[in-house]
């Protein structure tokens, strides 16, 4: 028995769009940029229907978490001074971008 015997072929529009993307970002997003894991390690991501490898993703560990936390702390120094309406505008823009992709 394979995953294809159990799971149906995706039919949801967002899933179909994701599967047709020419490239899936495989790096970690830290400090507003895509970076490799500090260790340089990656792990495979499998498509459950046929168990083919979709891509290799950077395998973050404690060193990467530390980098992310440092970046977030630095960003917060200015972001905490922003107004509630400005923060809401940013969150609404993010939601719109997600909706546009799906």
List keywords for this structure.
alpha+beta; single chain; 102 residues; flat; 4 helices; two-stranded antiparallel sheet; disordered N terminus; two-stranded antiparallel ribbon; 47% helix; 4 strands
Average residue-wise pLDDT = 82
Largest sheet: 2 strands, antiparallel
* N/C terminus separation: 31 Å
Overall shape: it is: flat
- How many distinct helices? 4
Helix-strand makeup class: alpha+beta
Please list the strands of the largest sheet in the order they lie side by side.
Answer: 1-2
**Rg value:** 18 Å
* Low-confidence region ranges: 1-8
The secondary-structure element order is HHEEEEHH
Helix content: 40-55%
Strand content: 15-25%
Task: Describe this entry's structure for a reader.
This protein is of the alpha+beta class. Helix content is 47%, strand content 17%. The chain is built from 4 helices and 4 strands, in the order H-H-E-E-E-E-H-H. The strands form 2 sheets. It has a two-stranded antiparallel sheet. It is flat. The two termini are 31 Å apart. The relative contact order is 0.14. The N terminus is likely disordered.
Helix-strand blueprint:
Elements: H1 3-6, H2 13-20, E1 28-30, E2 33-35, E3 42-46, E4 53-58, H3 62-79, H4 84-101
Antiparallel strand pairs: 1-2, 3-4
């Amino acid at each position: 028995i394979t995953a294809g015997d159990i799971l149906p072929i995706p039919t949801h529009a967002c899933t179909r769009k994701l599967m047709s993307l020419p490239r899936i970002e495989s790096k970690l997003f830290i400090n507003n940029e895509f970076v490799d894991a500090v260790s340089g390690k990656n792990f495979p991501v499998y498509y459950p229907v046929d168990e083919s490898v979709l891509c290799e993703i950077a395998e973050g560990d404690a060193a990467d978490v530390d980098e992310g936390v440092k970046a977030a702390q630095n960003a917060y120094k200015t972001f905490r001074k922003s107004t509630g309406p400005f923060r809401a505008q940013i969150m609404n823009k993010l939601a719109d971008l997600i909706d546009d992709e799906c």
